[in-house]
């Protein structure tokens, strides 16, 4: 999750945001906050006996799709929404496969 913190400077620069923009400062905390809600979904699917490969495939395909969409948008808020949801979904669903 710390990679998001590293990219905050570049994200702000790309979208022309101020150095201390609230949008870039809230990127990592929002990812962590949404991760709290997506990890029970991944845990539930893992406990239901879903194949780990399937669980990783679901999490990764949704994440890659949202990362691709976030790379195509030109609005900072749209990027923020896609990136945060993808990041949280990836950590919440794909990282639960080792629980089995």
TrEMBL record:
The chain crosses the membrane at residues 27-47, 54-72, 78-97. Keywords: Membrane, Transmembrane, Transmembrane helix. This is Uncharacterized protein.
């Amino acid at each position: 999750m710390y990679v998001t913190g590293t990219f905050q400077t570049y994200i702000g620069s790309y979208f022309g945001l101020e150095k201390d923009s609230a949008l870039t400062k809230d990127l990592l905390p929002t990812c962590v906050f949404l991760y709290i809600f997506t990890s029970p979904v991944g845990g539930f699917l893992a406990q239901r006996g879903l194949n780990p490969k399937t669980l990783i495939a679901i999490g990764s395909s949704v994440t890659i799709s949202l990362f691709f969409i976030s790379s195509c948008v030109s609005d900072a808020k749209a990027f923020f929404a896609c990136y945060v949801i993808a990041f949280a979904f990836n950590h919440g669903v794909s990282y639960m496969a080792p629980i089995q």
